[in-house]
Amino acid sequence: MDIKGAVALVTGANRGIGRAFTRALIEHGAAKVYAGVRDPASVTDPDLTPLHLDVTNPEHVVRAAEAAGDVTIVVNNAGVLGAVNDLLEGDLDVARRVLEANFFGTWAVSRAFAPVLARNGGGALVNMLSVASWSGSAVTPAYSASKAAQWSLTDAFREGLREQGTLVVGVHVGPVDTEGAAWMNAPKVEAADVAEQTLKALAANNTEVLVDDIARAVKASLSQPR
């Protein structure tokens, strides 16, 4: 897919990986980049077009699809990162909030923008996943479950949007050096690297991005004993 001249929407665009995606898209020649955020005033980059969008709010999602009818690339990045809740005694409302953002939010945005992408020639749908899609965690069970569900959803959209010519891309990565992952004591990759590798995959029409050694190792181990 040619990114130059494309019109993109990035959800959760005001920080971390989302911000990195917006900058990478501009640098690769995108004609317009919508920054989907809860607070449009938080978007101060003059190269971006702010779009009021809370992915957990159905009305926001519908209005966003109406307002951004020229979109050819959707990057589902918004979500709750690394939410910790106890496996045996934690409040299940925490898990529901995580699933609402990471899973149902991705589903809502993808479903709303699928007709937009179809009208504009097919385009691409990019879902920001994680190595947690493939590996459960007793420390962050809700997050891992949400990413596993999001991975399955990505496959479903890949199948469902094939006939309209939409490229559906899943991005897997280990810890990323963002504010949300500051609590993690582990080596981290740069958000800019995540965005750059993803855009290279888009340009090559690849459906999966394994950003770092962790993602590659975890995928390679899926058929082996845990």
Give the SSE map:
Blueprint: E1 7-11, H1 16-27, E2 32-37, E3 49-52, H2 58-67, E4 73-76, H3 92-119, E5 124-128, H4 141-160, E6 167-172, H5 191-203, E7 208-210, H6 213-220
Parallel strand pairs: 1-2, 1-4, 2-3, 4-5, 5-6, 6-7
Helix pairs in contact: 1-5, 2-3, 3-4
Assigned CATH superfamily = NAD(P)-binding Rossmann-like Domain
CA radius of gyration: 16 Å
Overall 3D form: globular
Strand order in the sheet with the most strands? 3-2-1-4-5-6-7
Sheet-strand content, in percent, reads 5-15%
Task: Describe the 3D structure.
The mean pLDDT is 93. The chain is an alpha/beta fold and 226 residues long. Helix 3 links the parallel strand 4 and strand 5. The protein has one domain: Rossmann fold (3-Layer(aba) Sandwich), CATH 3.40.50. Helix 1 crosses helix 5 (191-203), helix 2 runs parallel beside helix 3 and helix 3 packs parallel to helix 4 (141-160). The chain has helices at 16-27, 58-67, 92-119, 141-160, 191-203, 213-220, and strands spanning 7-11, 32-37, 49-52, 73-76, 124-128, 167-172, 208-210. The chain is globular and about 45 Å long. It has a 7-stranded parallel sheet with strand order 3-2-1-4-5-6-7, sandwiched between helices. The N and C termini lie far apart (37 Å). The longest helix is centred in the middle third of the chain and has 28 residues, at 92-119. 40% of the residues lie in helices and 15% in strands.
